[in-house]
């Protein structure tokens, strides 16, 4: 047996593939071995929070070519693992299963995929061009949350999913096909309305959709975190118009007063950009300075029986304002826990057919609904009407009048009507989000 092994060893060595030096940045400058063969290890985290991302799929792909004059591809091999609870992964060395006297291992790259996030490739970035921050050992992968404005078709083209990912991306392939179908003028999916550009010219189809934020925080999830045992009625807030980029959700406690209510106001990729949203939330909270509890722009305050948390994620183009009565959220930390849960659930945001058959989203560059120009100091004041005095929408969730809370002017006078009737015109101190006893 020893003789046979000695005779076969040269043949096996001759058939083993040649391994090219890696082209990774710093591959020749690191202390640990850096090779196309591997092993590869690192950690996958959320790009905004740096929280570890567990159960993400990490696939390593090794590519081969062969030939001495006429060079061509000669197969590939893959290995797939999932991240642990701390977001860490380890890819073992390539098995070098592809053999041949002129075979060469010419490339190796990783793909990281987790539903709800934009995927990652170790060799390229989504905007085009090579990636320059990948390392073989102790690599850090930052996954960005999926945005409503992202295209499933472009995402899959970027990933070019290998076989181990085919099952995981099957759901997304259907949406990618729908994206391409609509891009070609197809009318599948949500209802289509016609918008006339100029008199006498042909009309173009416009998909009538509105933002749906109702899945960001369900009644069961609230009860689980606050201990509340009664039922909620989930309805739209009516103080601001629901659009393709804004949705207000009211979780109204049934058989309980307003201090058990909870409200969410969500902006997603508004046409006017995130600056007006951030300015409005900052104005809503008055002199409260932003912290980094959820994102680098996170505000929190308590006033007159209402806890309020606001945050802006510029990478995902999303702004959220959560208000919770003090009988539902017994302290500000409870509201912050719910707001963090909302942030983790941002992948649940979606667009749905507009039940009212509204027209299309305004053109880019216009100020978003609920964030008028007057919300930003130094700009023209907003016209009167819903949302004019309270552009961020911190008003009665039932939409029966708006709070006149103003960080600048101080409290105004007026009377507070009974539950469900009228609105309070009494403003708390600067930065306080709502009047005591009112729906948050």
Rough outline: elongated
Radius of gyration: 27 Å
- Output the strand order for the largest sheet: 12-13-14-17-16-15
Strand content: 25-35%
Weakly predicted, low-confidence segments: 1-13, 189-197, 358-437
Give the oligomeric state of the chains in this entry, treating copies of one chain as homo and distinct chains as hetero.
Answer: single chain
Number of helices: 6
Kindly report the average pLDDT value.
Answer: 75
Structural class, by secondary structure, is alpha+beta
Question: What is the helix content?
Answer: 10-25%
Distance separating the two termini? 81 Å
Largest β-sheet summary: 6 strands, antiparallel
Count the E strands: 18
Helices and strands, in N-to-C order?
HEEEEEEEEHHEEEHEEEHEEEHE
Could you please describe the fold and organization of this structure?
There is one protein chain. Helix content is 15%, strand content 25%. The protein has 440 residues and is an alpha+beta fold. A six-stranded antiparallel beta sheet has the order 12-13-14-17-16-15, with helices on both faces. Strands 1, 3, 4, 6 and 7 form a five-stranded mixed beta sheet that branches. A three-stranded mixed beta sheet has the order 5-2-8, with no helix packed on it. Helix 2 (152-159) packs across helix 3 (170-183). The longest helix is centred in the N-terminal third of the chain and has 14 residues, at 2-15. The radius of gyration is 27 Å and the shape is elongated. The model is unreliable at 1-13, 189-197 and 358-437 (pLDDT under 50).
Question: What's a quick, concise take on this entry?
Answer:
With 440 residues, the protein is of the alpha+beta class.
């Amino acid at each position: 047996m020893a003789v046979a092994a000695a005779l076969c060893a040269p043949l096996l060595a001759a058939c083993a593939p040649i391994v090219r030096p890696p082209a990774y940045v710093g591959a020749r400058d690191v202390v640990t071995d850096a090779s196309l063969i591997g092993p590869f290890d690192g950690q996958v985290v959320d790009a905004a929070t740096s929280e570890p991302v567990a159960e993400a799929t990490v696939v390593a792909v090794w590519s081969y070519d062969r030939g001495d004059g006429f060079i061509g591809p000669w197969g590939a091999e893959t290995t797939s693992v999932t991240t642990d609870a701390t977001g860490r992964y380890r890819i073992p060395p390539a098995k070098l299963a592809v053999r041949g006297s002129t075979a060469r291992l010419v490339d190796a790259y990783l793909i990281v995929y987790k539903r709800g996030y934009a995927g990652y490739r170790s060799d390229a970035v989504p905007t085009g061009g090579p990636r320059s921050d990948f390392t073989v050992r102790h690599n850090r992968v930052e996954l960005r949350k999926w945005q409503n404005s992202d295209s499933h078709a472009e995402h899959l083209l970027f990933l070019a999913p290998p076989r181990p990912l085919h099952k995981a991306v099957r759901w997304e392939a259907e949406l990618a096909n729908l994206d391409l179908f609509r891009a070609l003028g197809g009318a599948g999916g949500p209802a289509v309305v016609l918008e006339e550009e100029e008199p006498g010219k042909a009309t173009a189809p416009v998909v009538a959709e509105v933002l749906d934020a109702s899945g960001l925080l369900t009644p069961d999830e609230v009860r689980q975190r606050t201990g509340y045992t009664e039922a909620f009625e989930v309805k739209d807030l009516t103080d601001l118009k629901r659009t393709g980029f804004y949705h207000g959700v009211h979780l109204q406690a049934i058989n309980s007063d307003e201090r058990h209510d909870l409200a969410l106001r969500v902006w997603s990729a508004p046409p006017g950009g995130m600056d007006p949203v951030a300015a409005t939330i900052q104005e809503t909270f008055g002199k409260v300075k932003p912290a980094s509890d959820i994102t680098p722009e996170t505000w929190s305050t308590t006033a007159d029986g209402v806890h309020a948390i606001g945050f802006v994620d510029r990478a995902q183009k999303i702004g959220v304002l959560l208000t919770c009565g003090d009988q539902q959220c017994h302290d500000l930390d409870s509201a912050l826990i719910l707001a963090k849960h909302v942030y983790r659930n941002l992948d649940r945001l979606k667009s749905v057919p507009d039940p009212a058959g509204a027209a299309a989203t305004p053109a880019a560059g216009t100020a978003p609904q609920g964030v008028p120009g007057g919300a930003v100091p130094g700009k023209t004041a907003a016209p009167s009407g819903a949302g004019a005095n309270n552009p961020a929408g911190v008003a009665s969730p039932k939409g029966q009048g708006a709070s006149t809370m103003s960080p600048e002017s101080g409290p105004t006078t007026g009377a507070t009507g009974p539950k469900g009737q009228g609105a309070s015109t009494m403003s708390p101190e600067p930065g306080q989000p709502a009047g005591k006893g009112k729906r948050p």
